[in-house]
Amino acid sequence: MKPTRKYPLTLHVNGETYELEVKPQRTLLEVLRNELELTGTNEGCATGDCGACTVLLDGLPVTACLVLALDAHGRQVTTVEGLATAEELHPLQRAFVERGAIQCGYCTPGLIISAYALLQENPRPDEAAVRLAIAGNLCRCTGYTKVVEAVLAAAEAMYAGRSAPATSTQMADM
């Protein structure tokens, strides 16, 4: 049996560039966890149904278990590790901790990434917008109330006392 050929892959993850060689069947999730050792992105179902592996690909939330790594070649990937700095947690991460939205924590990275994507597009969401944004993320522990409260608290903390940044939709209208 002939071994599977590896192909070159350039990934821009959390502001760092990585040059790898991967087999064509490897998913973005596998490469992030096994090659880059970014283990915040979790594998839950491997079918794209649970959202535990949600990352941003060029700013949009995707389930990394369904994206072939080679399809992410040359693109920007943001994982939950890319939100915090060495000094402090991102306001979303801090709000999840403070509001008790983490429970077992397995789904938390995917929920935070989905919420982050929402706040990039809609800095002042209402409860319905938050619930819609996290609809693709399953959580068996929290019942979502604390998650929604955390996202709304983070939005308030991030934009309190100042204008929210223009969304991509608003920028396109300019």
Architecture per CATH nomenclature, i.e. the level-2 architecture of the largest domain: Roll
Number of helices: 6
The Rg value, from CA coordinates, equals: 17 Å
What is the CATH C-level name of the largest domain?
Alpha Beta
User: What's the N-to-C terminus distance?
Assistant: 57 Å
CATH superfamily of the largest domain: Beta-grasp domain
Q: Would you tell me the overall average pLDDT?
A: 92
Strand fraction equals 5-15%
Order of helices and strands: EEHEEEHHHHH
In short:
By secondary structure, this protein is α+β, with helices and mostly antiparallel strands. 33% of the residues lie in helices and 14% in strands. The longest helix is centred in the last third of the chain and has 15 residues, at 145-159.
Structural descriptors:
174 residues, alpha+beta, Ubiquitin-like (UB roll), DNA polymerase, domain 1, five-stranded mixed beta sheet, 5 strands
Characterization of this structure:
The longest helix is centred in the C-terminal third of the chain and has 15 residues, at 145-159. With 174 residues, this protein is of the alpha+beta class. It has 6 helices and 5 strands. It has a 5-stranded mixed sheet with strand order 2-1-5-3-4, with helices on both faces. The mean pLDDT is 92. It folds into 2 domains: 7-79, Beta-grasp domain (Ubiquitin-like (UB roll), Roll), CATH 3.10.20.30; 91-159, [2Fe-2S]-binding domain (DNA polymerase, domain 1, Orthogonal Bundle), CATH 1.10.150.120.
